[in-house]
Every structure is written in structure tokens, then in C-alpha cells.
Amino acid sequence: MRGGIALASGVALVIGVAVAPKLPALLPDAIGGPLARWLSGDADVDVIGTVATSVRSMNQLSVFEARLFSIARTSDEGWFKPLDTTTYVIVPGAVRYVVNLAAVERRNLNWDPQTATLVAVLPDPVPGEINVDGARALVIVDGVDLASGDQREAILQKSLRVAGDDMKRQAGQAFFRQAARTAARTALTQNLAAPLVATGLKPRVVVRFQGEAAIKG
């Protein structure tokens, strides 16, 4: 077989948000009880420390998933022009974006009891491992297909590697990072507000991501 493999194109489709679990279910009595007492007037309870512990318990929070597609093209020159072939391998895949909350510290949170405002500055969502779905790859051969089974398998495996690299590039694009950030902000705002709402407060929760702004106050 002669010729090389090239990336024909890469496209991606956002398919939605992986909604995070509600925070109250993650709060043991040892945390929820002291938090409720603090909100009722017990100033001895460290609310920032309590909320930080609750946030860290969410660990690697999956907030967004995008479905990706890539098309790899392999050209092969035959002994003469009519025997030239081009193989297109259309490869689907997906990537999930996660927020690593395990390292959240007190300095990432700020609670203003006067305005009932909680400000959280959290790590940006990042793409996880690319899931290349080789089982659903579609192979299209343009020309007279004279390749052996081993040759076709070699083209497929090389195309899957090329497609995986392309999907990794796609996942790092600003469009997807911003979409993941928007989804993460919605999920985290709800999760952070939930334990405060459960005690009767109507908090205003502001979620920012590192690099957007520093906590003031």
C-alpha cells in the first residue's frame, strides 16, 4: 500500500449537560447540623470551612458532555490511475468535562451574611479522556477496493489514532471550553445554594472560575 493518511475534516456537536448531583444528598449530619445552627445564630460554627468541606466531597464533578466527529482520509495510488483509491473513515467520539473540586480551600469561598451572598472561585472545567468509538466508525472507499483485510484493518487503526488526536484538539477549542464553563456554573450555583436554601435563606450565589476574577473582601 502506498500513500498516506490525512485529516479531511473535524466537526463536533454539543449534546448537553451532565447534571451534577444535588448537594444536600452529599451533606452528612455532621456538616448539615452545624450549618443549620450557624445560620440560626451560632457564630461559633465555621460556615466557610463547612461549605468548603461539602464542595470538596463532590471531588471530580462531571458537568458537560460533547459528542465529536472526525473524518480521516487515506489515499492509495494504484499501479495506474483508475486503480487509485481514497478511504474515508468517519469516527464518532465523545468527551466529558469535569471540575476538580477536591482541592477547594477556604480562600476560594467568601460569605457575606449582610447580603446573603456566597462567592466561589473554582477551578475551570477541563476535558477528560477522549472516548473514540471505533466500533461505530464508518468506512467509505472511493475507487476500486483491492486492499486485503489486513491492509484495511491497518488503515482503520491508523485512522482511529488520527481521529483521536483531532478530537483532542477539538475539545480544547474555546467554544467547547466556554460551553463547559456555562454548564458548570449552572450546576455549581444550584449545588452551592441548596444547603443554604434548605435552612430558609434566599442566597445569591456567584460562581467564578479561576482566571475570571479574584474574590474581593
The global form is rod-shaped
Largest sheet: 6 strands, antiparallel
Question: Proportion of β residues?
Answer: 25-35%
Number of helices: 4
List keywords for this structure.
six-stranded antiparallel sheet, 217 residues, three-stranded mixed sheet, 32% helix, alpha+beta
What does it look like?
The chain has 217 residues and is α+β, with helices and mostly antiparallel strands. Helix content is 32%, strand content 32%. It has helices at residues 29-39, 47-56, 149-171, 174-198, and strands spanning 5-16, 60-76, 85-100, 109-112, 117-122, 126-127, 131-132, 138-142, 204-209. Strands 1, 2, 3, 6, 7 and 8 form a 6-stranded antiparallel sheet that branches. α1 runs antiparallel to α2 (47-56). The longest helix has 25 residues, at 174-198.
List the helices and strands and how they pair.
Layout: E1 5-16, H1 29-39, H2 47-56, E2 60-76, E3 85-100, E4 109-112, E5 117-122, E6 126-127, E7 131-132, E8 138-142, H3 149-171, H4 174-198, E9 204-209
Parallel strand pairs: 5-9
Antiparallel strand pairs: 1-2, 2-3, 3-6, 3-7, 3-8, 4-5
Concise synopsis of the structure shown:
With 217 residues, this protein is an alpha+beta fold. Helices cover 32% and strands 32% of the residues. The chain starts with a strand and ends in an 8-residue tail after the last strand.
